[in-house]
Structures are given as C-alpha cells and as structure tokens.
Amino acid sequence: MTTVRSTVHRPEGAGHRGASEFTELAKLIRGGGLLRRRYGYYWTKLIAAPVVLGVCVVAFILIGDTWWQMFTAAVLAVVFTQIAFLGHDAAHRQIFVSGRWNDWISIVLGDLLVGMSYGWWQHKHTRHHANPNRIGSDPDIELPVIAVAAETVYVPRNRAAGWLRAHQGLFFFPILLFEGLSLHASSVRRVVTPGHLDRRWAEIGFLSIRVVGYLVLVFLVLSPGVAAAFLAVQLGLFGFYMGVSFAPNHKGMPVVPRDVSLDFLRRQVMMSRNIRGSRLLDAAMGGLNYQIEHHLFPSMPRPHLRKAAPTIAAYCREHGVPYTQTGLFASYAIVVRYINRVGLGERDVFTCPLVEQRSHLTSS
C-alpha cells in the first residue's frame, strides 16, 4: 500500500500552484454570488430559535410530572442541536458582516440557550479547521477514549483491553450518548480556568443562567426520578445527535503526519467527506453534510453550500483533487471499519479510506 509520504509528496513549486488553484476557485465562487449574506434566511432562524424553545418550555411546564416528558426531552435534544448549528454558522461569520455581531449571537445561542461555551468551542474548532486530521494539530482526532489515529493507540495491558481496542469502532456511537454531558462539562471548565478568554464574564453569566436555571426548572416541575431520567434522555440524545452529525465529516479520511505539508485546497478537500442527501438531510445536519465546501469557504452561508457543491466538485475533478462523497449510513460503516482497523494497530491507514471509497468518489 502506498505510504503517506509518497501519497502526498508534491514537486517543487506545488505549493504556489496549489495557492493559485484555490485563488481561481475562490473567484468562481465569489463571482457566482455564493459568498453574499442571506439575512432573510438567518433572521428567520434567529427569531424562530427562542420562540420554538419558549414553546417547548411552556409545554414542559404544562405537561407536568409524568413519564411522557421523555418525549419532551427528545424534542429538546433536537431543538438544542439545531440552535447549536445556528451558533456554528454565526461563529464562522456566515450571518453578519460584523464580527462583533456574529460573536454575540454565538454567545447568546451557545452559552445562554444551549449551555456550550463559545470561547471553548471557537478555540477548539479553529485549530480543527486550520489542520483537519493532522496529528498534533487537530483536537478532533485526540479523543480520550477512542483512538482514530494509529499514533495514538496504546499497547493493551491484557487480553480484554486488547479485544476492546480491536473492536473500538463498535463502541464509538454508544459513547456519543455521553457527548452532551462532556460538552457542557468542557464549557464550564473552560470559562472558570485561568487564561485568555474574550468576554469571560458574559460567558460565565450566560452559562450560569442556562445551567442552573435549567436544572432548577426540571427539578421544580418533575419528581427526582423522572427529572433524572429526563436529563439523561435529553443530554444523551443531544450528544448523540451532535456526534452523528460531525462524525461522518472526517473520521475515516486520511490522517496527516506532523511533518507533511499540503496546500490549502488539498488539505481541506482530501481530509473531508460530503454526505449525499436531500434538503431534509441538509436541514437535519445543519449543512455539515457539505463539509468540503464548508472547509474551503467557512463563511459561506449555509443555503449556498448545496449550490456551490457541483462547481467545487467539477473544479476538483479538473485539477486531480479527490472529492469524496457518500451516503449517510455508508459513511457510518466507513467510520466504524476505520476505527476498528486503527484499534487493531494497522500503521499504514492513511490511504485505506480512499482505496475503500473509490466507488464513492464523484464529481457531483
């Protein structure tokens, strides 16, 4: 199997050519009006988010102390995830021209409505966008439980640990049920830890209102047992929904060693995967299914991602850059197989996902 170095080696001058290729693509996208703001689209969502959340809270209070609230918990998990997607758009400057407006919208949506620190997410996500799937640079491949890069696999201490590591892909999705709790805990830890954080006191205030107020409301309306189950369902489904929306984007795509350099166009396209589907899937995944377009143009408004995809796919095909897309459930299967192979200790897994997905490579 081809090694990573021979796979990504580019002749002298390739960096400049790569930069000019992206510049040419950017002109095509800008000329097509795909970077212009979509104020009507986003104002509708910004108004709808607190209204829908308010309706859910009122319904929660009126339904009262009953096990039927488990359905309310599931609905809230979806609502919180959709609001988080909107906060993601604002953090990427997709909504307003003003960076200050986008920042405050992200803080209100993230800290106050969802309970996730914007400052924590911004620091982590910026590093991911700069170097997707790069060892030592992308925090999204430095997971505490699941190893997604061969360099991060430890030597099992016993046969049971070895079996668990070899079959770690099977546990990836169940573990996502704990992701919601992890996101909230990481957010609180970030805002109270010393170090630079813009608008720290605003985030502390909003997070305190959200976390404490939410818990007080739940335990005032529900009896302790029902309240505990409600929180478990809501947090579990929220984390799972977030996880299954982000997991197909890069997991199982090539992992880049620390000492390998790629031009911007190839770095963003070759390490990302698109998910084919309808507009319903676009809405369900918050536009994250157009991961290639999003990584190339992070400030592109969500409604334009679908429109930009055919142009970018054709351009990549013309310039010999692999543009990968597949179906949703096929992507999950790829993720599980890949993580299992990493757990088995395979060292040369850089090109494996590309080989396995040849039938899924497409330019449309």
Explain the overall architecture.
The chain is mainly α and 364 residues long. It folds into two domains: 4-37 and 263-360, no CATH class; 39-247, no CATH class. The protein has 17 helices and two strands. The chain has helices at residues 4-8, 14-31, 39-63, 69-91, 99-114, 118-130, 159-166, 168-175, 179-192, 200-221, 224-246, 264-269, 279-284, 291-296, 302-318, 328-343, 352-356, and strands at residues 274-275, 325-326. Helix 4 (69-91) runs antiparallel to helix 5 and helix 9 crosses helix 10 (200-221). The chain starts with a helix and ends in an 8-residue tail after the last helix. Residues 1-13 and 347-364 have low confidence and may be disordered.
Features:
364 residues; mainly alpha; two-stranded parallel ribbon; 17 helices; 2 strands; 63% helix; globular; disordered C terminus
